[in-house]
Automatic annotation (TrEMBL):
InterPro entries: Cyt_c-like_dom, Cyt_c-like_dom_sf, Cytochrome_c-type_DH. SUPFAM superfamilies: Cytochrome c. The chain crosses the membrane at residues 223-248. This is Cytochrome c class I.
Length: 263
């Protein structure tokens, strides 16, 4: 009897430990966006708890590994965001997460508690973005790698993508906050791993990016114009320099004789 129960018990324990791992992995990789209880953010990030599609393990693994975008509907609410692909989550880990999610589905799906949120200050966000105000934990300013139309003199870095429409792509202010506090993008994950943004900073940056996305798009030619102005100023300085050199040039012999004769 005991011998027959043993494999069952082991299988049960294995399943349990998988689900435990799944929980830890979920908290590491997914909770920032989908919420601690898988409740999602209405209208921005779909819930995973109580989501019928999430019962399909293969589907969850595919979404995690390949990302997902485009409109989808969960429990009558429409979502149209972008989940970045997360190849850093191993397939086995994704499966463990999927199993954990199944244990969430259904009963535990409560309506999302209205989390008390810090009000984001777009002006602060702008200063943080540009590096005019240092990030509290010493992270690099966003502008080092990103551009946002019309902000900063010559744009910004080009390692990351242009963030002008990031708010539209990533589920508005709420989605952005989540992304910034737990970036899913490899480079940013590394850069901010030991220097996370504070809640206030994430909120401010999100508010700033939402504001930017609502402004009329500025053409790239704006930067070209500024570039030309910068070029002309530089040229002017060079000419001035030349003129000064010309004034200070050593006098020629003939001139020296002439000025001696004049005396
Ligand atoms: C950067 C934020 C973010 C992170 C991190 C994230 N997701 Fe998502 N996820 C989204 C968004 C946004 C969508 C909706 C995409 C759409 O509208 O097409 C989504 C959709 C999904 C879906 C499809 C839901 C459906 O109804 O079809 C699944 C499944 C999913 N995510 C699982 C996960 C898992 C598992 C993790 C962790 C490994 C994770 N997500 C991490 C933002 C995120
Ligand atoms: C070291 C370079 C680097 C720094 C610094 C950096 N990022 Fe990123 N960021 C990236 C890369 C690389 C990606 C992912 C690939 C891409 O979207 O180009 C990314 C992606 C993003 C995305 C998702 C873009 C999208 O629409 O899919 C957002 C939003 C973002 N970063 C915001 C920020 C903010 C806000 C800051 C400042 C707190 C910041 N980043 C600082 C490199 C950086």
């Amino acid at each position: 009897m005991a011998r027959r129960l043993l494999p069952l018990a082991l299988a049960f324990l294995l399943g349990l430990s998988l689900a435990q791992d799944g929980k830890a992995l979920y908290e590491q990789y997914c909770a920032a966006c989908h919420g601690a209880e898988g409740q999602g953010i209405p209208g921005a990030i779909p819930p995973l708890a109580g989501n019928p599609r999430v019962a399909d393990e293969a589907y969850v693994v595919k979404v995690v590994r390949e990302g997902l975008s485009g409109p989808l509907e969960v429990n009558g609410v429409v979502y149209n965001g972008v989940m970045p692909p997360m190849p850093q989550v191993a397939e086995a880990d994704a499966r463990a997460i999927a199993q954990y999610l199944k244990s969430l589905s259904g009963a535990s799906a409560q309506p999302p508690a209205p989390a008390p949120q810090v009000q984001g200050d777009p002006a602060l966000g702008r200063a943080l973005y540009l590096g005019q105000k240092a990030l509290q934990n010493g992270g690099a300013p966003c502008q080092a790698c990103h551009t946002v139309a019309g902000v900063g003199f010559l744009g910004g870095g080009s390692l990351g993508r242009d963030l002008t429409d990031a708010a539209k792509r990533l589920g508005g202010e709420a989605g952005l906050r989540a992304v910034l506090q737990n970036p899913a993008f490899l480079v940013m994950r590394e850069v901010y791993k030991d220097k996370p943004l504070t809640e206030e900073e994430a909120a401010a940056l999100a508010a700033f990016l939402v504001q930017v996305s609502q402004e009329a798009p500025r053409p790239a030619s704006l930067y070209l114009g500024r570039f030309l102005v910068a070029g002309l100023v530089l040229l002017g300085l060079l000419l001035l320099y030349q003129a000064i050199l010309w004034q200070l040039r050593p006098k020629s012999l003939a001139e020296r004789i002439r000025s001696q004769l004049r005396r």
